[in-house]
Amino acid sequence: MTERWPIAGTFAISRGAKTEAVVVVAALSANGFTGRGECVPYARYGESVDSVTRAIVALRPQLAAGLTRDGLQDVMPPGAARNALDCALWDLEAKLAGKPVHELAGLPAPQPLTTAFTISIGAPEAMAKAAAKAAARALLKVKLGGDGDAERIAAVRSAAPNAALIVDANEGWTPQNLAANLTACAKAGVVLVEQPLPEGKDDALARIIRPIPVCADESVHDRESLAGLAGKYDAVNIKLDKTGGLTEALIMAQEARKAGFAIMAGCMVGTSLGMAPAVLLAQGARFVDLDGPLLLAKDRDHGLRYEDSLVYPATRELWG
């Protein structure tokens, strides 16, 4: 099922802006219980609402025949479609077992977490205004990726002097301006820079001294992509829509830590149903960016509780 959720204002990154979040929800039923999972098809990865919906519908016969969550990993590639089904299967398993997902996964009970709040890219004055409104938050994620980024990050820092800052360039920098932009971010006290260079064109990261830890986003999807990041990145942004669900995300996080990467738990812009399983992944993350519902004009019923900079685990009425 496709759902459209208006965004409060506009969400803008280096690749463009949007005014609504379009999500696909998978629902699986058995023995009077229904499990749900939400995904966000992402054009950057060659996905559309139609392609994701077709992929989910195509698996109906196998799901009806008893396809398990483990089996799903073998018959569907990583991506948004598998995420919706994987999380729906987790939710259904929990309901059938009468146990929360964290117990089924062998995880400790989830606790509230400090999450970033996103400041969209724009003119320095507009970004400063947005940052001033959010200045009391503990962690801000600042979208950059264009000419004038040094002025933008300086304006945000001036407007929010006490917040920790993460920068996300969304592949918008070049090898020519990389060092200067990293220096500007270091001057502003930024603690992490996400995906400064385009995927596949990021070798320059291995040839410079990085004054700030750099996190892979578009360059990392599932655990198979970790090997190509050595020497270029210090952290990885794990998103369920990239890994294809919570199952792979939990395994990927373990492998990433073994490889020496810090973990960031991220999200697309979606509702609390999409964030709920990511809260379990985020329990062991160094950085948490699960603010999708905060960017919407309205969240779904039984949504996650956000209080100041904290996001609380889902209630069972929502998921898991």
Specify the CATH class of the largest domain: Alpha Beta
- Sheet with most strands: strand arrangement: 5-6-7-8-9-10-11-12
> Helix and strand succession?
EEEHHHHHEEHEHEHEEEHHEHEEE
What is the number of strand segments?
Answer: 14
Q: In CATH, what is the homologous superfamily of the largest domain? A: Enolase-like C-terminal domain
**Describe the biggest sheet?**
8 strands, parallel
Would you give the CATH topology of the largest domain? TIM Barrel
What value does the Rg take, in angstroms? Answer: 19 Å
SSE blueprint:
Layout (H helix, E strand, L loop, with lengths): L1 E12 L2 E15 L2 E7 L9 H10 L1 H5 L4 H7 L4 H18 L3 H4 L8 E2 L2 E3 L4 H10 L5 E5 L5 H11 L4 E5 L9 H10 L2 E5 L19 E3 L18 E4 L1 H4 L2 H13 L3 E4 L6 H11 L4 E2 L17 E2 L2 E2 L9
Parallel strand pairs: 5-6, 6-7, 7-8, 8-9, 9-10, 10-11, 11-12
Antiparallel strand pairs: 1-2, 2-3, 4-14, 13-14
What this model shows, in words?
This protein has helices at residues 49-58, 60-64, 69-75, 80-97, 101-104, 124-133, 149-159, 178-187, 240-243, 246-258, 272-282; strands at 2-13, 16-30, 33-39, 113-114, 117-119, 139-143, 164-168, 190-194, 214-216, 235-238, 262-265, 287-288, 306-307, 310-311. The chain is of the alpha/beta class. The chain folds into two domains: 2-102, Enolase-like, domain 1, CATH 3.30.390.10; 113-311, Enolase-like C-terminal domain (TIM Barrel, Alpha-Beta Barrel), CATH 3.20.20.120. α6 runs parallel beside α7 (149-159). It starts with a strand and ends in a 9-residue tail after the last strand. The mean pLDDT is 96.
